[in-house]
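re: ur question from the group chat, yeah i did fold both. here u go
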Amino acid sequence: MSWISKMFEKKGVDNIPVNPEIPEDVFIEKAHVNNYAEPNKESEIAQHNIHMVYSFLSKDYHQTGYEDALVNPDTSYRTEKVREIQGDLEIVIWKARTFYEDAIRELDFLITSRSRLGMVDVVDELKMRKEKADDHYNKILELQKEAIEQGDSHRLIISYKRGFQNGMAAIAIHESNKKNF
């Protein structure tokens, strides 16, 4: 045995495993699947506000349309997908409307009950929150009206159709390149 191996020799640690096995559930919390339509947490309910609507409206469906055309180059599929996008938009808007309608009702109740108790500062703050909720609710109504009026000219639909057309064009170019003219 050389002097280097003696210097780095493990003494009394042979019984301790180098990498002990730690169960996965100690560090990782697994989410429970909830197949119910209603959210089960207040945080999920709070997400059904105007920001959820704006987030949905800012999606870009160009790539989705392109990929759909490559997988299923049928215009009837495109029409179905357009209706699906419009339906999803309506659902998002209705969720937000319901959220603000409930919030306004709750704020009205709180304003009435706190004003009876003489809580002037709290009532003023609640009135300010109600004005903000009313503004957001009115914006959602405007967005809903615009989505219904614009129909197929809505930005989401245009984005999807443009992507679908680009996918169809890519298929046509690929097919024409396979043939020698």
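okk and heres the other one u asked abt
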Amino acid sequence: MTFRVNFYAEQAFLSFVKKMIEKTESGSEDETEVSAVCVLACAAALESGVNYIFLNYTNNTDFDKLNIKSKIEYITSSSTEKIKWSEGFWQNIILLINSRNWLAHYKESDIGLINSECKWIKDDSNEIPKIDPNHVLNISNIKKYYESTRSALKFLIYTIKGDLITHEYLDDEDYSPLIIG
């Protein structure tokens, strides 16, 4: 007997982030570590979901040459629905992408200097960091990134008039990343 196996990476990543949000309390000892991994997982969920939509609902074969933002814009290019990157959940998607890039392309552990009030100090040898780990790596932001990732993928499915039943996990959060049958 043989069975078809389907793996949905976006569902695996979203399921993981949902579990971490439920388990991790704000201010907990492991909040920074959990949040760092959740940023990467949300970004991976977004990209794998966008890639799925791109491959299944467009005729563009050059998707490997495009970054995530360009893929999203391409998917919506023939629609009347336009992306407003500075508004709503799209604004959080930009923050997610920037945070992911900072974490994934990490180069320097000495990112700056803060004073006793946790305010960044800018002087001749210290710049204010582009990404503030205290601001980015917390459960409150992870919740925003998680919800924004789901909203962005729902928007894209709706925009291309995709199969909403196949993607109902975006509404009910009932994830099935591995299906054998």
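fwiw on the second one: Strands lie at 5-7, 178-180. The chain has a mean pLDDT of 91. idk if thats what u expected
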